[in-house]
Amino acid sequence: MKDLTRIKLLNLQHKQNAEQQMEKLIARLAPTGETNYTSISSSSAAIPTFDPLFELWKDYWARFQTFARANSVHSDRLPQIFLTNQPTATYKLLSALAAQQSSPKDINELSTNDIASFMEDQFDPR
After folding, report:
1. How far is CA 56 from the centre of its chain?
2. Of 41, 65, 72, 125, which has the fewest Cβ atoms less than 10 A away?
3. Residue 59: Cβ within 10 Å count
4. Which tens digits make up the pLDDT trace of 46-62?
5. Under 8 Å CB-to-CB from 83, ≥6 apart: which residues?
6. What residue segments make up the domains of the chain, in order of their start?
7. Predicted pLDDT at 40
8. 13: phi > 0 → left, psi -120 to 50 → alpha, else beta; which?
9. Dihedral of CA 106/60/43/30: which sign?
10. CB of 78 within 8 A of CB of 69?
11. How many Cβ atoms sit within 10 Å of the Cβ of residue 109?
């Protein structure tokens, strides 16, 4: 029973962290004049971080894409939205994978397809 309570608390903490990250992102995007991002600020619209212990990568990626479409996130900003919404471990993993490519990339140069490919390689069971 204590484990279940701990898991619920961890999930709540993940959700709160995601909401805080999204609010910071919205604050940074607001000055650009793109008002479509204001709809992201509602707590019901916040998407939690990817946690491989609780969700399959394919399921999370589908939810993330739905979230982006529902909030009119421009495709050029998808990589940044994804990266700012992930825990430090995922960010560092993607940064390391980008740097190990035959043509090394900075994490901020990754495309949405790069991120999806790296994450699929790491977390999609085969």
Report:
1. 14
2. 125
3. 11
4. 778 999 999 999 999 99
5. 91, 94, 107, 110, 115
6. 2-123
7. 43
8. alpha
9. positive
10. no
11. 10
CB 46 within 8 A of CB 22: yes
Looking up tokens 């739905």, which residue turns up?
66
Residue bearing the bigger pLDDT, 101 or 26: 101
pLDDT of 2-24, one tens digit each? 666 666 666 667 666 666 666 66
pLDDT for 70 equals: 92
Distances (CA, A) of 79 to 5, 51, 74, 94: 33, 18, 10, 11
Token pair listed for 81: 């939205």
Taking the C-alpha atoms of residue 52 and residue 122, their distance in angstroms, rounded to an integer, is 10
